[in-house]
Write a sequence for this structure.
């Protein structure tokens, strides 16, 4: 069994892609996985996402707009998690990312409300939780987890293989390839030195 922690920017362009790859790997390998989805938002992660979007030649708004959109999405996620549970919250965020990163839709309150309707969420219920004290506690708990493992970039994946005697997991930053995910999530698969060195170079792999 694997335990996976995925730290993401709520609307990050690379984060959307790595989420799809992880889900595909879990499905294709038919894995028993405990999956933790941890959205975090900092000035650094928002700035990094803007740089990535420029590389993809996207038409961009300014930093303040992306900061507001990121924080709005983060609060929505936590409100939905509190009101409806983790599964619906992940579904909301994945749908939002698909609109923004695949369809090229601009973030807006109208888009958010459209997704509410598509997945059967009640706007009034979500707004009630967004205005409660619990929302900040929920966000702070995720940020404390990110601080504990010194998460600096998104996406970052931490993988623990529960079948191994070691308590250590591996941490990888950035966009991990589909093939590398298959190798990392193949039980009892021993990796050669060249493969491990490539991951260290490309994704700043380290033990946690």
């Amino acid at each position: 069994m694997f335990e996976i922690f995925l730290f993401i920017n709520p609307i990050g362009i690379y984060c959307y892609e790595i989420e799809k790859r992880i889900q595909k790997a879990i499905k294709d390998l038919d894995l028993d996985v405990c999956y933790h989805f941890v959205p975090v938002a900092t000035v650094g992660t928002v700035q990094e996402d803007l740089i990535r979007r420029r590389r993809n030649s996207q038409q961009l708004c300014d930093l303040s707009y992306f900061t507001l959109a990121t924080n709005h999405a983060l609060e929505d996620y936590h409100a939905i998690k509190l009101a409806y549970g983790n599964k619906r919250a992940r579904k909301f965020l994945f749908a939002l990312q698909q609109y923004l990163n695949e369809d090229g839709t601009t973030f807006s309150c109208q888009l958010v409300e459209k997704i509410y309707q598509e997945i059967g969420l009640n706007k009034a219920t979500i707004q009630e939780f967004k205005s409660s004290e619990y929302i900040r506690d929920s966000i702070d708990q995720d940020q404390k987890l990110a601080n504990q493992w010194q998460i600096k970039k998104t996406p970052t994946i931490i993988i623990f293989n529960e079948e191994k005697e070691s308590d250590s997991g591996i941490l990888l930053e950035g966009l991990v390839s589909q093939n590398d995910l298959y190798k990392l999530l193949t039980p009892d698969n021993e990796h050669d030195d060249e493969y491990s060195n490539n991951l260290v170079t490309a994704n700043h792999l380290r033990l946690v």
Notes: The two ends are 18 Å apart (CA to CA).
